[in-house]
Structure formats: structure tokens, C-alpha cells
Amino acid sequence: MHLLPLLALALPSALLASAAPAPPAVEVHSAFPPENLFGHVTNGAANKISLTFVNRSPQNLTVLNVGGNFFDSVSGKNLANVTTKKFNTKVVPEGKYELPYTFGSELKPGEKTLKLWVEYADDSASKHRAVAHEGLVTVVEPPASWFDLQLLSVYLLLASLFSGVAYYVYSTYLAPAPAKSKKSSKKAIAPKYSSDPAPPVDGTKTYDDEWVPETAKLRNRRGKAKLGAASSGDELSGGETSGGEAGGKKKKGGRRK
User: Which DSSP string do the residues of 128-166 spell out, in sequence order?
Assistant: First the structure.
């Protein structure tokens, strides 16, 4: 009695499954280019893979788009989706169509599983998917370039830091002490003063005698006084002599008379 409800539920499902049309027969082949035979996927680059779609059905098919995913090679976890590219190209029965496809990656380096699919539609506009590629790929980093702007900026920064440290060490510990400037061998020529200064016209002093000791001043005054007395005595004796000569002449003249 309990089997009748189960059979009633299972019968419609079986009828629906038998009524669903089978997807059109297709084949999809994939191949990496000759320069990438080992299937390396470079981060930050446009990785190429060639897909060939073959229509094995008696009806026209339309290739809609190509997409895929990266999976962890051990756990099967979905890591990232790859770029979906649209085509919307019809393929006749037994026809082939090349699908050039490029995709990018920003994953950690290592082995990953890459799965690509092709989505297409039949004459009744029903959509189907076929596996285009499924296999292990190796994700690698791009090769370093000396002309990369980011690397050049890092090199310049490191070079400036190194040069600054080197200059500090040299100037602090290795640089020689500055040489002392040599004194000039030429002696300063003292100004020459005349030992016989011209006497003042108005009798005023031409020098400052405040620094002269009083004893020297007194001696100077006494010397000047003696010189003055001697000069005045000479003048007097000269006057008297001239006077005597004049008197003698008068006397002689008187006698003649």
C-alpha cells in the first residue's frame, strides 16, 4: 500500500526526464600556443588558449560565449572566475569554428585547475554548455624587468638611502681634519713717520703729550729754556759786536777830521 504513493511521484519525473531533448552533439578542443606548451598562466598578463568548436549535430548551432573558473587543485574549491567573452557565431552542421580566447590571473603562484566551458544555443534557442578545457595549469609571476617603473623607483630610493648613509659615515669617521690656514709670511709694514716734524706755524703743539711722564716733560722744558737762553745770548753778543764796530768806525772818522 505504501508503494503506490511513491510510484505516483516517481512516474511523472521519469516521464519528464525521457521527454527532455538531448543536447546537440558537439566537440570542443583546446590547446595552448607553441610558446607555452607547459600551460603556464602568468599573473597580470593576457594568457592565450585556442579553442576549436565542432558541430556534430544536424542543425545549426550558435556559439554564445566562453568562460570558466580556477579551482584549487587539492580541495576543488572555486578560487576565481575568468573573463567571459561573447561570440554569437553560427556554426553549420559538421562545421568547425576557432575560438581565440585570452584570460587573466591574479592568483598565488602554484598549480591550479583551470576549467573552461563553451555556451551555445540550438535551433529552438535552448542553451547548452560543453566543457572546453579542464586540466592543471601552473600560475607564475611575470619576469622582472629592469625598465619597470615601480622597480626603478625602488632602486632610486635604495640608492639615495645608501648614499646618504655612506656620506654620513665618511664625514663623521673617515674624513681628514681640515688643515689650519698658514699665517702670511709678509710682515705688516709700519707707517713711517718723519723724525723731524715741521715746526708749527702758530706755536701750537702738533702732538699729544698727555702720555709723556712729568719728569720727561720737565726735562724737555729745562732743555728748551737752556736753548732759548743760549740763543738770546748769542744774539746779544752779536749786537754788541756790531755796535762796537760801528763806534770804532766813527772814532776813526773823527780822527780824520
Answer: EEEEEEEEEEEEEPPPP-TT-HHHHHHHHHHHHHHHHHH
Determine how many CB atoms are found less than 10 A away from the CB of residue 176.
Answer: 5
Residue 88 cell numbers, joined: 554569437
Confidence of residue 14 (pLDDT cuts 50, 70, 90): very low
Using alpha carbons, select from 57, 130, 128, 132 the residue that is nearest to residue 92: 57
Partner residues linked to 169 by β-bridges: none
For the stretch 185-215, pLDDT in tens is 555 555 555 555 555 555 555 555 666 667 7
pTM higher than 0.85: no
Measure the CA dihedral 228/233/238/243, to 10°.
130
114: burial class by Cβ within 10 Å (0-12, 13-18, 19+)? buried
Using CB atoms within 10 A of its CB, is residue 189 exposed (0-12), middle (13-18) or buried (19+)? exposed
pLDDT in tens, 113-148: 999 999 999 999 999 999 999 999 999 998 876 666
